[in-house]
Amino acid sequence: MSSDPLESYIDAAAAVLGLPIEPAWKPAVRENLDVSLKMARMVQEFLLPDEIEPASVYEA
């Protein structure tokens, strides 16, 4: 296992899911996961006031 937590996570998740990840793909997988985590952090840090109303649900 790698000392990089993201690399370790990728290896563990691939093993649990039974997904083969070629060594050449790992940099792209790591970059995608890094961007996804940054976007999730932005959403999580966005504060909403308590009085905010949920968006309406429209169905066709």
Mean pLDDT: 91
Number of strands: 0
- Along the chain, the helix and strand elements come as HH
Give the distance, in angstroms, between the N- and C-terminal Cα atoms.
Answer: 49 Å
Number of helices: 2
InterPro entries: AtzG-like
Organism: Candidatus Afipia apatlaquensis
Protein name: DUF4089 domain-containing protein
Kindly describe this structure.
- This is DUF4089 domain-containing protein.
- Pfam families: AtzG-like (PF13318).
- The protein has 60 residues and is mainly α.
- The protein has a domain of 39 residues.
- It contains two helices and no strands.
- The longest helix is centred in the middle third of the chain and has 20 residues.
- It is elongated, with a radius of gyration of 18 Å.
- The mean pLDDT is 91.
Helices and strands in order:
Layout: H1 5-17, H2 26-45
Short description:
InterPro entries: AtzG-like. This protein is mainly α.
Tags for this model:
mainly alpha, elongated, 55% helix, 2 helices
